[in-house]
Each structure stands twice: as C-alpha cells, then as structure tokens.
TrEMBL record:
Its cofactor is Mg(2+). Belongs to the MoeA family. One of its GO terms (molecular function) is metal ion binding. It catalyses: adenylyl-molybdopterin + molybdate = Mo-molybdopterin + AMP + H(+). Pathway: Cofactor biosynthesis; molybdopterin biosynthesis. Its EC number is 2.10.1.1. This is Molybdopterin molybdenumtransferase. InterPro entries: MoaB/Mog-like_dom_sf, MoaB/Mog_dom, MoeA-like, MoeA_C_domain_IV, MoeA_C_domain_IV_sf, MoeA_linker/N, MoeA_linker/N_sf. The keyword Magnesium applies. Catalyzes the insertion of molybdate into adenylated molybdopterin with the concomitant release of AMP.
Amino acid sequence: MSGLISVDDARRALAPHALDAGEETIGINDALGRILARDVLAGTTAPPADVSAMDGYAVRLADTKDTGSQLRVTGEVPAGTLPTHAIGPGEAMRIFTGASLPDGADHILIQEEAERSGNHIRVTVPQSAHQHIRKAGRDFSAGDVLVPAGICLTPADLGLTAAGNNATVTVRRRPLVAILPGGDELLPPGSALSPGKIIDSNSAALAALVRSWGGEALTPGIAGDSVAAIRAMIDAVNEADLILPVGGASVGDYDYMKAAFTEAGADILFSGIAVRPGKPTWFARLGQQRVLGLPGNPASAFVCAQLFLRPLMMSTTGPATVFKAALETGLSKAGFRETYLRAVSRQQDGQTIVAPLADQDSSLLRPLQTANCLIRRMPNAPACAAGDTVECVKLD
Ligand SMILES: Nc1nc2c(c(=O)[nH]1)N[C@H]1C(S)=C(S)[C@@H](COP(=O)(O)OP(=O)(O)OC[C@H]3O[C@@H](n4cnc5c(N)ncnc54)[C@H](O)[C@@H]3O)O[C@H]1N2
Ligand code: MOO
C-alpha cells in the first residue's frame, strides 16, 4: 500500500550497506568499552615460575613436620630477583610474596610459624601439607587467547591484557555518525525558549544510542527549514560514515530533508516503510556515506534507530535481543503497518510477562523512558488475548 516497503524488505535493502569502519590499534588505557577486533594473546606466562604466595621461608616440607625442627637459612629471594642457589636438606631460604621458589624447596613456611635466631629458624607450628606455592602458568601460559575478538572490553579484560604483556589492542574503529536534526522550531537543550519553539531531544537520544552501539556521534547543530541550510550541514559532515537526518521526512510543506540530500547528489534507495512508528524513514547513499533519514517524532526516531540503525552498525555490536513473552492484556487487531509497541516486560513465577504502555503516541518521551522492550506485531495481525505469546525486542 502507498509505496511503503515492508520492514523485512527495508532490512534486506540495508544489509549490503552495513558499516565496516575497519580496525585500529590503540593503547590499553583508551580501550575500555571498545570492540576487540583481534584476539589478545598472552605474550608471557603468569606466574612466570613457581612463586611464593606468602612472606616466610622456602623449605622442604619433610624438614618442617615437627615443632622445634631447626633449619639453616642460606640466603634470601626478594620479589623481582631469582634465587642464587638451591636449598638442600635442613636448609631454608628467606622468601617474599611473589618471589621465585629456589630449586629444592616444595613448601613455604610462613614467618608467623617460625622463630628466627641469627642464621637459623625454628619451626613453631608443625607443617602437614605443601602450601603457599603458586605454580608457573596457573593463571595463563604464553600463547593463550586471553580475550577473544568480538567482545566489548571490560576493566578485567584490560587487566588481563596488560598482564599478558600487551600495551596495545586492535579494536574496531568507531564509525563516525553525524546527527542532523532539521526544523525551524528546534532549539538546543538549555536555550531560552520563545513561543512556537521546542527543544531538540532527538540529538541527545540518538547520539547516546550511536555511542552505545560502538560509534562516535557528531552533533554539528540544527539545520533550519530550507534546502540551503540543510546542504550547508551536509557539507559540514563530509567526514561522517553515516548521516542521520532527523525530521523533515514526511509530506509537509517544510519537509526539505530528502530534497536537500537529492540536490547534494544522494541516491535514495527507499522512502517510507510500513512500520509504526516511523513510516517516513528513508535511506540513501551519498557517495561512500550512508544516509538514514529518521522521522522527527521522538518515539519514531528512537524506535527506528533500534530497528534500522542498529543493524547498519551491527558489525560493531551484534544483533538485538529478541524474546517471547506472555501478554498481560489483550491487543486489538493490528493495522497494515508492522507495529512496535513500547512495553514493559518482567519476570513473574518463572514466566516472562509483557505489558504494552497505555499511550503509544509517537511524540511522547515519557513512555519511552519507562519501556524496556518493544512488542512486535505483524501487519494485520488478529486481535490477541491476555496470556497469548508475542515476540519482543529488547530496547537499548
Ligand atoms: N499528512 C501527513 N502528515 C504526516 C504524515 C503523513 O503520512 N501524512 N506522517 C506522520 C508521521 S507517521 C510522522 S512520524 C511525522 C514525521 O514527520 P517528519 O519526519 O517530517 O518530522 P517533522 O515534521 O520534522 O517533525 C515531527 C514532529 O517531531 C518534532 N521534532 C522534529 N524534530 C525533533 C527533534 N530533533 N527533537 C524533538 N522533536 C522533534 C516536530 O516538532 C514535530 O512535532 O509526520 C506525520 N505527519
Ligand atoms: O510513523 Mo509516525 O512515526 O506514526 O508518528
């Protein structure tokens, strides 16, 4: 109907245009939250040798079984040095936490369980089992995969990466995504408002989504309602891998976005999707740049970013979570557009329950803040009852 393409066809049309911004190698201190492009390998073994886990004496267990046993202290191994000699029967070596075990030793007598006098120690607590030695390679061995490619780097991953003697990691480059809101009514947050003006909320929400999907967001400002103003903005973001024009996508007299992009040389691949909310969503190529036009209504822009922008950026994030849930309340017959209802899902008695929010108007931000998922309804889906199973998409 009316020249709109289906959600599935839109996804298929977008698939060949998914972003692959390439790889870059960066310092580990800048890598938190980045997507790893190449496995991190251990360049060393940890611990590199059998080491002491306590401050005390490296001994032979057999020499320390009885209270009062005397051992001769033949030397010392502080952490960071290697033992200069082995120990023999009746001998001990002073050792500190993390230091390498001398040959001949098979046990650490902690200093609290020994009494020192000159070059001798006396066992004050009989020792019964080998203890306090960390074996070489207990954590990892040289050549092990420490962090697999594809994951989003956490603080623990970075500690492990460093321990494996890696100062850098190779991560996916962040695609540069420019957000281009258009409309004479829009002012940035924090402005002095005047009659007829509203605040641009889409830029903040979309920039946050872009960042959470591994991209870098550019927000060059708001374009006025004219082809010339929009073209100036297009020129200003020629570095971007993807441009997100927001608003001005529908049929109103001041909806200039597509005209401006066409004039700039863009090739529009589709315009209008049978989806609710988000019908005016469109897609174009401007040379190497991808252009995903989103509707101005905040819920439409947000939902269509989840449905269409996320897959475009998928090479850096992986697919959205889809799950099944039981409806808390019935739903009336669906319209001809594939519909995504903002909803709240929760666990109850081992079951996932989902409830659509009462007001689904696409201008509203409050329900969007409350929602944690979208209920997907296929075009013309029949009415369904409470308890029926529906498909849901987790919201980011
Ligand atoms: N006669 C028709 N009118 C409309 C149709 C239609 O088919 N025929 N489609 C409607 C649908 S569906 C949508 S969605 C909207 C989308 O229109 P646009 O993409 O052209 O968006 P605008 O008109 O520029 O804005 C719509 C609405 O959203 C507000 N807005 C815009 N940008 C922002 C922003 N950055 N932050 C916050 N709010 C924004 C704007 O002020 C409008 O209220 O069109 C319907 N109309
Ligand atoms: O498709 Mo629009 O997003 O319903 O308001």
